[in-house]
Every structure is written in structure tokens, then in C-alpha cells.
Specification:
The structure is a single chain. The chain has three domains: about 10-80, no CATH class; about 100-275, no CATH class; about 285-390, no CATH class. Helix 8 runs antiparallel to helix 9 (about 245-255), helix 11 packs across helix 12 (about 305-330) and helix 14 crosses helix 15. The radius of gyration is 25 Å and the shape is globular. It is mainly alpha-helical. It has 15 helices and six strands.
Amino acid sequence: MPKIAGNIEFTNFSKSEYLLHDTIQNHYVKISNEVYDLLCLIDGKKSIHDIIIAYNNQYDLELTEEFVHDLLYKKLQPYGLLEGENENLKKYKKPGYLNLSFIIFNENLLKKITPFFGFLFKSKISICVIILCIGIIGSCLYYHFDLYSSFNLRNSLIYFFILMAMSTTFHEIGHASSANYFGAKHGGIGGGFYLFTPVYYADVTDVWRLPKKQRIVVNLAGMYFELIFCSLIVVFATLILKNSFLAVLASIVCIKTLNNLNPFLRSDGYWIFSDIINKPNLMSHAGKKVLSIFSKKQKKWKGEDFLLFFYGLISYSIILLFVYYVIIKNPNSILLFPKNLYNFFKNLFTRGAEFSFSEFAQLLVPMLFFYLLFNFIKGFIISKKDKLSKS
């Protein structure tokens, strides 16, 4: 007599899909409308045999007990679907692309802050704020164009990084505030490393329960808040401090946030594109779609299938071009990497030695190469283990 666990919630995700949410382990699993209809027949009183008869009679199908048993107890139960079945439950894991992550502002502290920013997401207010902020940033760059064109960022890195840290914090508060405004839960704000680059992140996984348009707004909210923050700094620097340098620096930081629209890195652009085509694991789906062209069994493609295919094709092309550049065009960066890394840290901690950010930037290329190589080998080993365990 299977029974749905009390910690399981269902949310309509799209026209053909529902979202199964385990509120304890914080798992989110997409299921089809057909699977959802089957799960709705589970009430703790019917046996699997009775559920199958009711479902087959209702939809004129011929589901077997073996199929339904595997679906419930092997595929869905690891996500906490059934009450009293606590074996082989999957524990929540942090995203694999985020390394050395840690919490900076915990969930309880953030919950005290986010409600105050809800008014910024009302449509009329948000439109006025965006137009005003764009006008402020644009005017700053226009009237201080000479200072901007001759701006030496290297001599101002410490100020730039401080302003960047403050702006990025506000960026993540924007994500959390928008999630709270639309009724989704949010976790804390943390830090970590993505492709050897320090990053901030806000845990807003629960927004998958929201409609597509609201999810896109949540993903755009970070840049929206950075625009507001930088505009306030420009106004404060211009009217109060009379400091054109700080105003231009804030404008540069504001322009920098447009990098988040890049859909080929796991930033806001990636999640926006993922929301548009309703694919939470975008990179994985895109890779499978590219490989599917070599399959003998070809299904008729829809519009989103073509989007996934071209997205995956471009992603793989970028990786191949990067590998070609490293191995063919610049092999010394790989061969001399240990020596260059040793010399860099030696100079970094040697008094009187020159510290060069350009040297550090050159180290990032081989570091990224070894990171990709490590993930490829790890994925290959895991896939081999999975095949052996299934056999």
C-alpha cells in the first residue's frame, strides 16, 4: 500500500510536466503529466495492483506491475517520494561546478532583509527605476568620457575589487529578494570558486516552483540590483563627494555586470536560457541532443530541440577551440605550468619581487585546461562504474 510522503509537493511546471519537490532533502525532479496522474491515485489505501487497474481503465493503457514498481521504488523513491521507505535516499549535494563553497550571510539574516526590497519588483516602479538608473550611468559615462577613456584600472584594482564585492553582494540580495517577493524560499548567500574564479551565489533553487516569467525575473534581479547600487554610488560620488573617479569606477562595475548575460557560463544568462526552454539541467540536455544526431532512433524535433542542439554545438565548439589553442598554439603553457606556478608564488611571497597580474592571468589558461581534463576523466570513470553496477 504505497503512500506519498508528507514532505512531497507537486507544482505545475509546464503544459506537459510537473515538478516533484522533496522539502526535506530539497530535491526537485521533473515528471510528466502521465506520471503525475499516476501518483495522484496513490492514497495509502490502494495496492499497486489496484492503482494500475484504476489508471489503465481511466486512460485505456496497459501498464504492468513491474513498470510501476520500478518507477515508484527505484526511480522516484530515492527522492523521498514514499512514506516509510527511507532506504537509498539521495542526500542534497551542492552543485558540482561550485568548489570550496561556504556561507557568508545565512538564511535567517537574509530573511530579515529581503522583504524590504519587495516594492522594487512592482512593474511600474521597476520600469521607472531602470530608466532612471540607465540615465544616471549613461550621463556619467558621457560627461566623464575623457576620464573613462584614460582610466587606468590596474592602478585602482583595490578600489575596483572593494566596489565589485559590494556590488556583487547586492546582486545576490536581488536574487533572494525577488524570490521572496514571488513566494519562493531562499537560502543564504555564499561564496566559492567557479572555473578558478571567486564567485558569490544565492541559493534560490526553490524558484523552479514558480512560473517561467517569474523565474526569468528572479534571474534578472541580480543585474537589476547592481544597476541600482552603482547608480546610487554615482549619485553619491558626484553630488556629495565630488569624486569623478569613484563615479566612473561605479559605472565600469555596472557595465561589467552585463557579462552575467553570457549563456555559456553558469551565470544569469545560462539560467535565463534554461528557463526559456524549461530545461533545469541545460548543459546536460544540450550535450545529449548533440550526441543524438548519431543515434539510429531519430525522433521528430520541436523548436526547443533545435535550440538545445545549437546551444550544445556552440558550447562544444568553444571547448574544442580552447583545447586547440592550449595544445596546438600554446603548448608551453601546459608543459611549463608547474614551473610558472612555482615562480609566481615564489615572487608573490618574496619581498621586493615584482607582482604581475598579467602573469597570473596567463596561469588561468592552463589551470582551466587541467580543470576540464580532470572533470572529463572523472565523468568517464563514473560512467564506467555505473555501467558495471548495472551489468
